[in-house]
Specification:
Helix content is about 50%, strand content about 0%. It is built from 10 helices and 2 strands; from the N terminus they run ααααααβααβαα.
């Protein structure tokens, strides 16, 4: 079994994709309450009531602004055609690509607007470089599924982004994490992957 297959199998066996989907289901439960949904997503509140790890350093004022921004365009979301349109609608001063992606992923899942390509930023970009080489990702913000090694094509784009982030070092070293880590290398419960 090659390195890529071992990593994909480990990702699947640890049910990291399912854990991610389970967390996204939390937001979907609030679809009919725009104020609550925009509050939870704008403030990056997880199902356990804590702030999602990627958004812990964002200032309170920025989170409040994001919540208001989401409320302002909430009525437009059902008419969006794809994930890229949603990402552009979310884009605002004060938040970076990772927060834009995470926010779009949370609200997009709620409205069945899913990524059709793999967005690479921060940890996922490091993972993509280690997997495919620096030239393959230089200057890019996403990868198409067909560009990835065959082993990864059984995953969804959302799962690949998560896998690239979690296993970023494994692509380089070949060693699987002996504990569950998030993109920022903190220990976490399997319920809260990247």
């Amino acid at each position: 079994m090659n390195r890529n297959q071992r990593i994909v199998n480990d990702f699947i066996n640890k049910k990291l994709g399912e854990a991610q989907t389970g967390e996204l289901e939390f937001y979907k439960q609030n679809k009919n309450d725009p104020a609550e949904l925009c509050h939870l997503i704008g403030w990056a509140i997880a199902s356990n009531g804590k702030t999602q790890s990627h958004q812990r350093r964002i200032e309170r004022e920025t989170k409040s602004n994001l919540e208001q921004h989401l409320l302002e365009f909430y009525h437009l979301i059902p008419s969006l055609k794809n994930f890229d349109e949603l990402r552009e609608l979310i884009r605002m001063k004060g938040i970076g690509d990772l927060t834009i992606y995470d926010t779009a992923d949370r609200i997009g899942y709620t409205f069945d607007i899913h990524p059709n390509k793999v967005y690479i930023h921060r940890g996922a970009k490091i993972g993509a470089k280690n997997l495919m080489g620096p030239k393959a990702v230089r200057g890019r913000n996403f990868l198409y599924m067909h560009e990835l090694p065959l082993e990864f094509q059984i995953l969804t784009p959302r799962e690949v982004e998560n896998c690239l982030c979690i296993y970023q070092d494994s692509f380089f070293t070949g060693k699987l994490p002996n504990h569950k880590v998030s993109c920022n290398d903190k220990h976490l419960q399997i319920k809260n992957p990247c």
